């Protein structure tokens, strides 16, 4: 590590974070998915917060806890990713000593808070399923605020000793941190004096937070399952369990990488160091990026499972008076597509009749050649639209993401490829573009 100051000091001026050791040659490319996940986290969580804020019907316990989770995810990702990207892309590896301790404090505090919020969300699901008539009475706005303060207070009490205990250590093994962000154990390992207290306290906090929270979540879901299996109707059981789907996905996405990272950090001494760093980084980045997507797709209430506002997606959110909208939407689709398709088919029937009367095969080919671009554009517009329309109304067993994936090409492909089709297949436009390109090349 040439150029780094390696000296003995109880309070060094700065630390040097080297990113992901072992894959320095490709870490600039590894940073690309990290950046994408950060953008997803910013967009998704801000959209969730905006929707919950503007829609009074979403001021319910489930969505207020989701808002807490979104704020928490924004803080975790923003306190980590910008500096990480600077390290991986621009090699801005120096970080001031106190700034490093502050980053460490924020990361561990809000990671602990995320675990606490997941417990609160499990409590919400328990009350909603086991005591549905008293749900909003038990988890009113005051109670939710108090739960939020307890989660915050617990994290502050448990994590505040981390930077205090670190300041008593001497970092005589250097100030080069083999990590992409300031993590507690990575800093402890730089100490040359006795760090038993730091290690023991870090292990105790991890076991206390994760252990108690996992037990609380497990107990909630045991009670939920007991209540659900007492319901005689299979449809009611599935509906009740369906309300927990998003929460279960988020729990697994948060705890599994976290536990794997924790165990490999302390016991997986034969695992390459860059694997530790990648796991620890994904543990911080994946939940903030994908929590909004999971809740957006799996939560029906006023959250549209699509990438744009579509008529049928909005109709599906209605609880009454949607039959007229469905019938009218079907009538418009059949009228527009049906009449236009008939008109196009008649036009080409007459074109084929006329072309086949020509005596010269070359003239026939030339005549048909003028229609190629138009036929390609027609197929490119109508086939995805027809498939999307049919799968939306008839194929109820098709997964929701298939509908969305089909719907997006219908909107995006024709505008993107229509100019290319006409530019490549229309001689006049093609020649004009070629002349323009050659003219610009000659001027340069």
Automatic annotation (TrEMBL):
Q: What does this protein do?
A: Odorant receptor.
Report the sequence similarity comment from the record: Belongs to the G-protein coupled receptor 1 family.
The highest taxon in the source lineage is Eukaryota
Query: Which Gene3D superfamilies does the UniProt entry name for this protein?
Result: Rhodopsin 7-helix transmembrane proteins (1.20.1070.10)
For whether the record's keyword set contains Transmembrane, the answer is yes
Q: What is this protein called?
A: G-protein coupled receptors family 1 profile domain-containing protein
Report keywords, A-Z.
G-protein coupled receptor, Membrane, Olfaction, Receptor, Sensory transduction, Transducer, Transmembrane, Transmembrane helix
């Amino acid at each position: 590590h040439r150029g780094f100051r390696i000296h003995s000091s109880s309070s060094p001026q700065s630390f040097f974070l080297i990113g992901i050791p072992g894959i320095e040659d490709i870490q600039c490319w590894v940073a690309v998915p990290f950046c994408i996940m950060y953008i997803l986290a910013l967009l998704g969580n801000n959209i969730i917060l905006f929707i919950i804020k503007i829609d009074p019907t979403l001021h319910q316990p489930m969505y207020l806890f989701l808002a807490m989770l979104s704020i928490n995810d924004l803080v975790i990702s923003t306190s980590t990713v910008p500096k990480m990207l600077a390290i991986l892309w621009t090699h801005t590896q120096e970080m001031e000593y106190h700034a490093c301790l502050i980053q460490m404090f924020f990361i561990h505090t809000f990671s602990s808070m995320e675990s606490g919020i997941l417990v609160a969300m499990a409590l919400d699901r328990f009350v909603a399923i086991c005591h549905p008539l008293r749900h909003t009475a038990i988890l009113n706005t005051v109670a939710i605020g108090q739960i939020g303060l307890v989660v915050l207070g617990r994290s502050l009490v448990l994590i505040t000793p981390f930077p205090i205990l670190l300041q008593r250590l001497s970092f005589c093994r250097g100030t080069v941190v083999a990590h992409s962000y300031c993590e507690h154990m990575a800093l402890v390992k730089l100490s040359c004096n006795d760090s038993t207290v730091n290690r023991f306290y870090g292990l105790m906090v991890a076991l206390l937070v994760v252990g108690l929270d996992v037990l609380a979540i497990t107990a909630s879901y045991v009670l939920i399952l007991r209540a659900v299996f007492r319901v005689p109707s299979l449809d009611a059981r599935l509906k009740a369990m369906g309300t927990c789907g998003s929460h279960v996905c988020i729990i697994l996405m948060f705890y599994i990488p976290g536990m794997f990272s924790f165990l490999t950090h302390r016991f997986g001494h034969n695992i390459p160091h860059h694997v530790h760093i990648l796991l620890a980084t994904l543990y911080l980045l994946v939940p903030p990026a994908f929590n909004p997507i999971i809740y957006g797709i799996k939560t029906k209430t006023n959250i549209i499972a699509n990438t744009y506002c579509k008529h049928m997606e909005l109709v599906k959110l209605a609880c009454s008076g949607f039959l007229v909208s469905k019938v009218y939407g079907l009538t418009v689709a059949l009228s527009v597509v049906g009449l236009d398709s008939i008109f196009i088919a008649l036009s080409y029937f007459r074109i084929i009749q006329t072309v086949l009367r020509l005596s010269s095969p070359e003239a026939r080919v030339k005549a048909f050649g003028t229609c190629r671009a138009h036929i390609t554009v027609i197929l490119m517009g109508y086939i995805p639209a027809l498939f999307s329309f049919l799968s939306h109304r008839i194929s109820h067993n098709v997964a929701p993401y298939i509908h969305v994936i089909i719907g997006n090409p219908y909107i995006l492909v024709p505008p993107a490829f229509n100019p290319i089709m006409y530019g490549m297949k229309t001689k006049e436009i093609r020649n004009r573009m070629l002349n323009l390109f050659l003219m610009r090349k000659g001027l340069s």
